[in-house]
Write a structure and sequence with these properties.
about 400 residues, alpha+beta, 6-stranded mixed sheet, 3-stranded mixed sheet, 16 helices, about 45% helix
Length: about 400
């Protein structure tokens, strides 16, 4: 009974961090005071541990408010009751835990944050202006930063915590390494004669060296901040990176480090759109051989694996639901998926002929399992490809 009571006390004073923590960008005093417009983090394990719980408070609410450009920060912590030290559980020190992940000059009253709002008028993004574009009747700008860009390192320290809240395996950039390039996305707006900026996203690239003084840019992390998601800005940001590196003859190809499912789909959509925009590629119906890959690489800077993937998606789009065309597509893709199994057996025909009857039975059973596995992979791939095609069609 005592154990049950202790367990009940622990539950009462334990809160899921993602539910307790609320974030918001505020551009006016009305935004600061309003209870609307908050979003929750997707991940909190790097801040609050693998359990992603906060211990020691009941009815806990944590507010993080940020000004749009400078990212001046307010931290507010509210709770109904805090566990007593004599109850056997020590309450988490929330300011200490969060203090490692938010700007060091955070304020603790909303009035103090309101007094900082006028500073937004003088904020200008770090780095060099690389691209401007209109999207959904709003103005956007992309700035390219290196470790040498004035004010960039200090600004990145304020922006990087959003990676931790949004990407499961997020890591901070080591700006001691001169190979990093960071592309910052901002919304730009004019208000009563003032030019105002709001941070909207970032994409980091590490320029790895390749053979013969070439480079192989590797996309590391990409984030569009929650208030700006699902309106197509990620595609604009990625496309700019392609444009930035695409005309450089020193670039072998552009790779991606551990892409998430969402980024893989975004990449597929942008790559397919670019592929279809090149007539010589879009109308090609021959095999995916070395010569064709080289034409894709020099045109779009895609890796061989990604070029093959886009080639297959384009093929599926071209044949549509035509039975004959689909049969050829099915056969070619399944043959590709089967290659790892073929290689694991070496030259199959010669080796199979040397098997004794018992070994042949085991081999046949294993092959049946491979066939079923390949069918599952193919079905999943077909669904992914069709989703990409539908997304590109919606953009047309």
């Amino acid at each position: 009974r005592a154990q049950m009571a202790a367990f009940g006390q622990q539950l009462k004073f334990t809160t899921e961090a993602a539910n307790a923590l609320k974030l918001k960008f505020v551009a006016s005093e009305a935004d600061v005071r309003s209870p609307e417009g908050f979003f929750h983090p997707e991940f909190t394990h790097q801040v609050f541990g693998t359990s992603e719980n906060i211990v020691g408070y009941s009815h806990l609410s944590i507010e993080l408010l940020y000004t749009p450009g400078r990212l001046n920060t307010y931290l507010g912590i509210n709770y109904r009751e805090k566990i007593k030290e004599d109850q056997g559980v020590k309450a988490d020190n929330i300011p200490q835990l969060l203090g490692e992940w938010i700007p060091k000059d955070w304020v603790t009253t909303k009035d103090a944050l309101v007094r900082l709002l006028p500073e937004e008028k003088s904020f200008r993004p770090p780095g060099s202006l690389a691209h401007c574009f209109q999207h959904r009747d709003r103005q956007w700008e992309i700035y390219m930063c290196t470790r040498e860009s004035p004010g960039f390192q200090a600004y990145l320290e304020r922006l990087q915590p959003f990676l931790v809240w949004s990407i499961e395996a997020a890591s901070y950039l080591d700006l001691e390494d001169e190979r990093w390039r960071v592309f910052l996305l901002f919304e730009k707006r004019e208000e009563r004669g003032d030019t105002l900026y709001a941070a909207a996203g970032l994409l980091s690239v590490c320029e790895h060296y390749a053979y013969r003084e070439s480079i192989r840019p590797r996309i590391s992390q990409m984030l569009v901040l929650p208030p700006f998601q699902r309106v197509g800005l990620g595609a604009h940001l990625l496309q700019h990176v392609y444009t930035y590196y695409g005309s450089d003859d020193k670039v072998v190809d552009i790779t991606v480090e551990d892409p998430s499912e969402n980024f893989t789909r975004l990449r597929d959509v942008v790559d397919l759109k670019n592929y279809l925009g090149r007539k010589a590629l879009a109308t090609y119906t021959g095999p995916f051989d070395d010569d064709f890959y080289e034409s894709v690489r020099t045109t779009l800077r895609l890796t061989r694996a990604q070029a093959r993937r886009v080639y297959e998606i384009s093929w599926l789009k071209r044949v549509g639901s035509a039975t004959a065309g689909l049969e050829d597509f099915h056969h070619a893709v399944k043959q590709r998926l089967y290659q790892p199994f073929v290689k694991s057996h070496g030259t199959e025909a010669r080796q199979v002929a040397q098997l004794n009857p018992r070994e042949r039975i085991l081999y046949d059973e294993e092959k049946k399992g491979h066939v079923a596995q390949i069918q599952q992979q193919y079905d999943a791939l077909l669904e992914e490809y069709r989703n990409v095609i539908n997304a590109v069609d919606r953009l047309a």
